[in-house]
Amino acid sequence: MDILKVKSLHRYIKETLPNLKFERIHVGSLEGFTPPSFLVGEYNYPKVSVGVMFSTENNSQILSMPNLWVQNNYTVSKIFSLRRELVNARSRFNVYEPESEKLQQMQLASMSSTEVKVGMEISKVYDYYFKSKEIGIYGKSADMEKFSFKDDVKIDRQVEKVYYDKDLKASDGIITLYSSNIQENKISDILSLGAMGVRRKIVPTKWSITAVDDTIGRKLISDVKQFEEGDTYAIKSGGILGNHFTFLFIKGEWSFELIEVWNNSSKLFIGDGDYELYEGRKTYASNTAGGYYAVRLAVLEELKRLKRQFTVVAIREITPDYFVPLGVWVVRESARAALKGDLTPFKDLHSLIDGANSSTLYLKDIPNRSRLLKLIMSQRRLFEFA
User: Fold this and answer.
1) What is the DSSP letter of 139?
2) Are residues 211 and 238 in the same domain?
């Protein structure tokens, strides 16, 4: 993927987004507003950095609202310009000590359903930008010595219940919040800051994002397996933000595969993909990483709506329009957007593959790339000659 290098971000902003206002932060006492949003790093684990993402301007919630961005058809450039307004004011904590007074203040702020006014003591400012394909992009960073919030925080009842229930497993807390329509990024923040579970600890954001998607996905898999097997072949396709999806629904029991293709205008890269059979995975989906669990979640939500189980092959094609990483949420929401379309039926597997080749932007040899399709086709040949 043609991702902008960190050193080129400042130039891109100046040349392409000339009207953006740069927030200036300084050493010393500082007040700001958090959406709320927090970021836990993984470097030097178990002594990690925990940062509050803030802006010096109020109405900061717009800076961390993927669902609103999607609903209002924000472009990659627009979201990029919003995210780079956030400053990461961070302190270092031991992951096994989530009960310090400063961290508890951050935990309470993270659970707020509305913007939180915060106070900080800044000791150093770093004049560079951060990007990660899992977490996305944000603006400058700073070292923070003290943290407090200036207003009462408004916490959803279910969030508060999960926080104070020290006998509730983190996995059960995640499902409780998801079932209460709490956004995945909010659940991830709460988990990251060690604010749920029995044996609580701080979790790097990159890990917590996948943990949330995987935990919800496992619950939905158990639900979907209770449904009858689908007896048709069909395709859904679409997407947003430079991410195009083609979903092949193949009659039979639950199984799933994700294949990723990147086009950076000058070169096409086709990844190895990851898959799982009915019994599930026992290892991390290392080829497609967090995107695997995000797409699987979207697919399972759709199967639960259809009240059927299928074998689903998902093809994610990243176009040059997705020129800078915005986070795993883009993968999840792009998949959800594509799955809102109508199912296009096909009479058999052969015609389904032909239809998929017409739906994809770049990948035109799907049977050679999909391990699930190879398995299904080989099983059918064995059945025919049995």
Assistant:
1) -
2) no
Q: Residue 171: inside a domain, yes or no?
A: yes
Tokens of 312: 């689903």
What is the rounded average pLDDT of the residues 33-51? Answer: 95
Residue 227 lies in a domain: no
**Exposure string for 105-127, b = 16+ CB within 10 A, e = fewer:** bbbbbbbbeebbbbebebeebee
Please state the length of the chain. Answer: 386
The answer to whether residues 204 and 248 belong to one domain is: no
Q: How far apart are CA 244 and CA 154, in angstroms?
A: 37
Q: How many CB atoms lie within 10 A of CB 187?
A: 27
Domain boundary among 184, 215, 246: 215
pLDDT, averaged across the chain: 90
Residues 251 and 159 placed together within one structural domain of the fold: no
The answer to whether 89 and 34 have CB atoms below 8 angstroms apart is no
Domain count, the chain: 2
Same-domain status, 42 and 175: yes
Q: Which of 166, 188, 215 is the last residue of a domain?
A: 215
Mean pLDDT, residues 334-350 taken together: 95
Q: Which residue type is seen at 231?
A: D
Peptide bond into 325 cis (omega under 30): no
Question: Binning pLDDT at 50, 70 and 90, where does residue 77 land?
Answer: very high
Residue 23, pLDDT above cutoff 70: no
With CA atoms as reference, report the closest residue to 298 among 258, 352, 346. Answer: 258
- Contact predicate 285/257, CB 8 Å: no
Coil, strand or helix: which one is 151?
coil
Alpha carbon 255 to its chain's center? 21
pLDDT, mean of residues 130-146: 82
Q: Tell me, what's the pLDDT at 321? A: 94
Judge whether 38 lies within some domain.
yes
Q: Give the CA angle between residues 328, 331, 336 to the nearest 5°.
A: 130
Amino acid found at 206: K
Which residues, 6+ apart, have CB-to-CB distance to 318 below 8 Å?
1, 242, 243, 244, 260, 261, 262, 263
The reply to whether 134 falls in a domain is yes
* Structural tokens at position 16: 């392409």
184: containing domain: 6-215
Strands in the chain per DSSP E: 28-34, 38-40, 47-54, 87-94, 116-126, 130-132, 136-138, 141-149, 233-240, 243-250, 255-263, 268-270, 274-276, 311-318, 344-346
